């Protein structure tokens, strides 16, 4: 997949461009419906499948006070779009100046002149441009006047749940990871670099942990303990993860502490990818290290049972295509 992060780097329109536009946070199953449509149409016409997105997210620029939390990092988004078989990804730097662009100017200068759109595919609720002028009706009219058809993809539901980034954020905040997976098409994943913690895991509690700092921009799942799948150095391990403030020891910094099964490597400064599979219990304060250690043993026992039951599914979700 070719990636352009500056419109000025596109020296000529792409050949027969079939284009979709969006923010694509999370790259969920609804987004994949758009990508599939674009890839299919481009393949049939021997054209180019193109995804146009923005960085940073427009709401970070237009409404920073909202403090939007992201399902995926920019890196994850690019990875997942690449895996969808897209030929070209155009990432437009989103600034206040760009936000002032009128919808018709965007169509003329970006979609037609720069990218060379032959056909546009958008989601049922897509709108862009200053004041969201570029809604579906506008796009269809522009396409009729300027010679490119517009295909609108209907909303997609899974078990009566609308597949949308906002719904996924809601489910993540509630710890409903099994439902999140249904809408994402994969497990919800957090990533981070292993940092030195208080070093209480092994000596005090009896279970070594790898500690990740959670970014303020990232979507924080419901606090508590999760069954996890830890991806490190191309291999997958089972584990349990606690997200929270560790009330037993009176900590005041939000962290994610992971105990990795059958693992004894020094990984400070290394990146971990952690798939959250199921919320086991909420975070609670224990009387001391001994009671906490007993509870962790119970958590590990239950986690291993759940991992064994879902082994086939876990092996599939651990394939390289999900964890590059």
Tell me how many strands there are: 14
The N- to C-terminal Cα distance equals 15 Å
Q: By helix and strand content, what is the structural category?
A: alpha/beta
Please describe the biggest sheet, giving its number of strands, its sense, and whether it closes into a barrel.
6 strands, parallel
What share of residues is helical? 25-40%
Helix and strand element order = EEHEHHEHHEHEEEHHEHEEEEEHH
Summed up, the helix count is 11
What's the average pLDDT? Answer: 88
Report the portion of residues in β strands.
25-35%
Q: What Rg, in angstroms, do the CA atoms define?
A: 22 Å
Q: Give, in spatial order, the strands making up the sheet with the most strands.
A: 1-4-3-2-5-6
Structural write-up:
With 324 residues, the protein is an alpha/beta fold. The protein has eleven helices and 14 strands. The chain has helices at residues 29-44, 58-62, 74-83, 96-99, 103-115, 136-146, 165-173, 177-184, 201-205, 289-309, 311-317, and strands at 2-4, 17-21, 48-55, 88-93, 117-123, 150-153, 157-158, 161-162, 188-195, 210-213, 224-232, 235-244, 255-260, 271-281. It has a six-stranded parallel β-sheet with strand order 1-4-3-2-5-6, sandwiched between helices. The protein has a six-stranded antiparallel β-barrel with strand order 9-10-13-12-11-14. A hairpin with a 2-residue loop joins strand 7 and strand 8 (161-162).
